[in-house]
Each structure stands twice: as structure tokens, then as C-alpha cells.
Amino acid sequence: MIIGLTGGIASGKSTVSDIFKNLGIKVYDGDIIAKNIMAKEEVILELKKNFGKDIFDNEGRLNRKKFKEIVFNNKEKLEILNGIVHPKVIKEFYNIKKETNTKDIVLFDVPLLFETGIDKLCDRVIVVDIDENIQIERIIARDEITIELAKKIIEKQMDRKIKISKADYIIENNGTKEELYNKALDIYREIKKEES
Q: Do 180 and 173 meet the contact criterion of CB atoms below 8 Å apart?
């Protein structure tokens, strides 16, 4: 069984992903897959061509903060980035699905699960939801960015209500880590019961 996991930025999706990993579920992280793709030489060349060489530091590392400011302040630039990275990420998840034993439970942790169509590869979908004001506070604290950029990033993501309408399971994460753990554990137990 393939479980899709998604949620807006700073919703606590990664924490839920870690909970499932610690419960023995194999997790495939879309962010890690995307980062590995962006580290490939041919992709770096495409990024330099489309966004300029100065998005990389002297050691050749991508300046993520600078890059975020470019793509989230310019719709066309964001579309270019998605056009470079998304098809490669989607292909990777298709390959993982092909190689996955149907008896296993695996988790596809993908921020843009619905936007990329990767949800169609999943048997069940979990959405981690969060109140927007709490979300903005968490983004600013975590990424050390301005409130304006935090709001722009949220605006560029799929509306919360649409995500919730597409979910099989919803985890509201407006409380403590302990509450989040218990909610994730309940869903894990339900999935295990369904599997057996």
C-alpha cells in the first residue's frame, strides 16, 4: 500500500513523516529526491542558464534563501523551476511504485503531491493541516524570512480547503508535538488494520 503524505509549508508534514519512519514505514521524501535531482550536473546547468550563476556560492552550493526570493517573487521563474524539476521527480516516484511490493506499506512524502499528480500513485492520502497564522509564524521562525515572503510562499501553494477535500485522513497540527504524535499514531493503526 502506498500512502501519500502532504501539507503546506511548515505544517508539520516532516514531523509526521519522521513518526511513520520511526514506526517502521519506508519513507520516500520528495524534497530529498528533488534536492538530489537539483545537484545533478545537467540540472545545475539548466538552473544557471535560467536563473543566473549567482544563485550558487563559490563552492557551487545553491543559495536556497536567495533562490526562494527569486522564484516566489516571480510566477514565471517558479514555473520554469517546476518545469525543470517536477517531471524528473514524478518519474522517480513512478519508478519507486513499480519496484514496490504491494504487500509493503510505504510513504510518499511529497509537498506538491496533488499539484504533480503523484497522489494518483497512492492508495491513501494524509494531509497535515495547520491554521494559517500559526503557519506564518513557523515559517518566519524556521526560515528566517520576512512575513511578506512567507505569505507569498503560502499563496503559491494549493488552497488548504482543496487539499483537505482530497484527503483520506486529515491531521490538524495546531497543538503540541505530543498531540501530533498521537494523531499520526491513530492513522498508522488504522492503516495497519486496513492492510491486515
A: yes
